[in-house]
Amino acid sequence: MTHYIKVRNSGLVKLTSIDDFPDGTLLIGENLKNISFRIKRFFIIRNLYNKESIRGKHAHKKLIQVIFCINGYFTLSLDDGRCKQKILMNNPRTGVILGKMLWSTMDNFSKDCVILVLASDYYRENDYIRNYDTYRKLLNKKFS
Ligand code: TYD
Question: Model-level pTM?
Answer without folding.
Answer: 0.96
